[in-house]
Amino acid sequence: MKGQTATGALRGFRRRSLLRRIATGVAGAALAVGLSACRGAAPPAGAQRTIQFWTLDLAPKFNTYLQGVIAAWEAQNPGYRVVWTDIPWGSVERKLLAAVFARTAPDVVNLNPLFAANLASKGGLLPLEGVLPPGAPQGYLPRIWQAGRSAGPDGQPQQFAIPWYLTARITLANTGLLQQAGYSAPPRTWAEVPAYAEAVRRRTGRYALFVTVVPDDSAELLESLVQMGVTLLGPDQRAAFNSPAGRRAFAFWTDLYRRGLLPREVVSQGYRRAIELYQSGELAQVGSGAEFLRSIQTNAPQIAAATRPFPPLTGAQGDANVAVMTLAIPRQSRVATKAADFALFLTDAANQQRFAEQARVLPSSPVALQQLRRNLEEERPANQPEALVQQARLLSADTLGQARVLVPASPGVKRLQAIVYTQLQRAMLGQISSDAALVEAERQWNAYAAGRFPASKTLAGRNP
Asked: Distance of CA 310 to CAs 184, 289, 360, 379, Å?
């Protein structure tokens, strides 16, 4: 990665709007046409023994690691060659579309679940059941393996991706502000937040937390709805969030804002503002990956000295959020079985453990996770700042036991977020009630879903 860690790339993919152009409009239509037009194309001469492998923002930082993995796999598979290409985030859509039309789509591509879901829904990815060996899912954390499932063109869920590396959100809190507010630790569940937010605001003059409602920014608020027991969509992709749990969740956020317990900017500024407020001492806590602690130590040493890692906010069921990067096989591939073999090799326990150590991320392999945790426990940090990073990374690893992708990868999910956030903004600003906002969000989503997910398509195959 140029100037950033793999953790940064994972945070980045959650906030980028590339998917909206794939999912709708000219780009989406062009992709569907391109995919259908080239499925039967013959590969160029000699391509059968070349595996084209694309990653996102991993070069040049991880060149040595990836080149070593590729060389090891090639040594075990004589006659096959892996050609690795690293793609910058900002150009991935353009390059993928160009490759589709040129009939040179990669054989293995590094994607986030939302991007993979959009491609799968248009027939662009190969269902993996036919190319994976028996027992392949057992090599991965069960909840994380599920992140690779999404609906194909017929609306039926299939496994389209293999999990690779992860980050889990934890809470980083300013213990000085906590103590002033009368707390030794931040709350563990959303139900405890209102009283905590009021205490922080009343006793310190600061804010407890910042969760943005900017439509194209962080999905943290949408994830919080799931943690509060809200089912976002039904099997037919129609809105399921207009429910008692949905009404409580919309009222929760509306009330916090109207009572002045959230910064005014949550309706106009994104996650970056949360970082600025925390580093300036105006925020009691922030949800982030463990490695962000290093940034605080660099940018705001005094705040870092008071910062401690804590478990993430969850709902009553204890579910935490995890961000996943995956590997998928485009349908165009003429070496799909070998491509799957390479993807499994890249994500086996030994290779994942090495990558997790270097990139300071978390592995999706349970064996690699256990080894990473043992290694972290054996570390002897040279100073207090390094000891805090070690503690945060151990906490992140422990969080995976209760973590899952809270907002399932689904085509149109960014549109869903935009609709929900926009209506919540209206309720927060007092333009409508929270119940009216919920009803309007339901209406807008179902109007969109009626065109995007026709009932005959989404329900196909559900009845015998």
From this structure: 11, 11, 18, 20
CB of 140 closer than 8 Å to CB of 364 = yes
User: What is the pTM assigned to this prediction?
Assistant: 0.85
Q: pLDDT tens digits, residue range 8-35?
A: 444 443 334 333 333 333 344 344 445 4
**Nearest-angstrom CA–CA distance, 440 and 446:** 10
Distance CA 187, CA 361 (A): 25
Query: In the block, which residue shows the tokens 């973590």?
Result: 403
CA neighbor of 410 nearest in space, from 118, 35, 17: 118
Q: Do domains 6-166+322-362+371-380 and 168-320+407-453 have the same CATH topology?
A: yes
Residue-level pLDDT at 30: 42
Q: Where are the beta strands (DSSP E) in 336-450?
A: 362-363, 403-404
Nearest to 186 by CA among 284, 266, 261: 284
Q: Kindly report, residue by residue over 229-262, the tens digit of the pLDDT.
A: 999 999 888 999 999 999 999 999 999 999 999 9
**Which tokens sit at 435?**
């119940």
Domain ranges of the chain: 6-166+322-362+371-380, 168-320+407-453
To the nearest whole number, what is the mean pLDDT of the chain?
88
Pair of tokens at residue 193: 């937040």
> What stretch of H or E contains 52?
strand 50-56
> DSSP character for 449?
H
Q: Which two tokens stand for residue 5?
A: 């860690």
Decide if 100 contacts 106 (C-beta within 8 A): no
Give the residue among 34, 41, 37, 49 at the shortest CA–CA distance from 83. Answer: 49
Residue 341 parent element (H or E)? helix 336-346
352-376: b (≥16 Cβ within 10 Å) or e: bbbbbbebbbbbbbbebbebbbeeb
Q: Determine if the peptide bond prior to 142 is cis (ω within 30°).
A: no
Question: What does the alpha-carbon distance between residue 256 and residue 264 come to, in Å, rounded to a whole number?
Answer: 11
Residues in Cβ contact with 396 at an 8 Å cutoff, skipping those fewer than 6 apart: 167, 168, 170, 289, 290, 362
The CATH number of the structural domain formed by 168-320+407-453 is: 3.40.190.10
| Token pair in block for residue 177 | 């502000």
Rg, the chain, Cα only: 22
The verdict on domain 6-166+322-362+371-380 having CATH code 3.40.190.10 is yes
- For 117, the token pair is 């879901």
Is the pLDDT score of 75 beyond 60? yes
